[in-house]
Amino acid sequence: MIEISAPSNIAFIKYWGKHGRQFPMNESLSMTLKNCYTDMEVEYWLSDDIAGVQNFLFENKNQETFKAKINRYLQSIQDVYPLARRLCLNIKSKNTFPHSAGIASSASAMAALGKALGIIEAEITGKKLEITRVSELARLASGSASRSVIPYYASWGKSTSIDQSSQNYAIAFKDFHHNFSEVGDSILIISDAEKPVSSTAGHQLMESHPFREARIEQARKNFKSLIQAMKEGDWRSFGAVLENEALTLHGLMMNSSPSFILLEAKTLDAIRLIREEREVDKELSLYFTIDAGPNLHLIYPLAQEKRVKRLIETKLKSLYKSVIHDQILTE
Ligand code: PMV
Q: How far is the CA of 274 from the centre of ligand 1 (A)?
């Protein structure tokens, strides 16, 4: 029996579009979250007759869809993870955040699964447990999960802007200014309705997207500018790239065919308000990003937590249903 937990992450440079065996179309970079995570208990044994997940309890209830998803994944990795041919698992999983909060629950769940498989492999074969191996196993389950096994910031995908980058696994981005060592992420839940497009379908939309090549080039440039801003501790330049990435993701979805509009009117109202507030209060370092949903992640230095929370509780109050105050994971 092993017990693990793994956090969710929020992408600053978005992974959108993939090819081959879950390789990203472009490099991405994310912040790992402290309070939104998955706790998992995994019981394992080897059998010559059966393999795969026997029981999967999500929040104490049987979850056949998740179970089937993990079994398809285990089958698909048999060539790179031969133990999957004989490995039987009973899994109990729970999240610290609501399932429908629009927070990438697949990232934390699949990162936890990747960790479990890495630990099992190390226990059975006696091989040393490597973080790159864990990240690779997580990636094969869900691309963004590859980044969730690393604290602070993680980058995934081949990039000319940093050393040792890989499309197989994520690596830590450590070279940031201390202005970026304590960062808040307050998530405004604007709607908790089911997403109209799965991320798998979303990635597929990029295959024949008319802006595909332009997006690859833009992500390359944005990645470079973002890490430069983070190295210099420059919140303003960081924020400009952060918001551009979020709006690009949604722009790409809106002009895909078929087209998807995931933003709500209240998302746009909140964006306008945040931008106005920055005009009024020039000292405010508050920028937004958005995942594949309508909810806003407000990113800011924790030193400004009080004024950000005040803004959330006053001017932004009517625009969201609930709020989750999270922050960067530092260990
Ligand atoms: O890991 P997936 O396949 O769920 O894709 C996640 C894609 C985004 O969350 C929209 C962006 C990202 O980089 O996390």
A: 24
* pLDDT for the residue numbered 129: 97
* pLDDT computed for residue 98 by the predictor: 77
Q: How far is the CA of 314 from the centre of ligand 1 (A)?
A: 31
Determine the residue of 73, 245, 291 to mutate for testing ligand 1's pocket, defined as the one with the most ligand atoms within 8 A of the Cβ atom: 291
Tokens of 212: 């595909």
Q: How far is the CA of 245 from the centre of ligand 1 (A)?
A: 13
Q: Which two tokens stand for residue 176?
A: 């940031």
Tokens linked to 4: 């693990």
Task: Say if residues 298 and 185 touch (Cβ distance below 8 Å).
Answer: yes
| pLDDT higher at 197 or 202 | 202
Closest CA to 121 of 151, 93, 86: 86
pLDDT tens per residue, range 198-255: 888 899 999 999 999 999 999 999 999 999 999 999 999 999 999 999 999 999 999 9
| Exposure on the CB side of residue 184, measured as CA atoms within 13 A | 20
Our answer on whether the CB atom of 42 is closer than 6 Å to any ligand 1 atom is: no
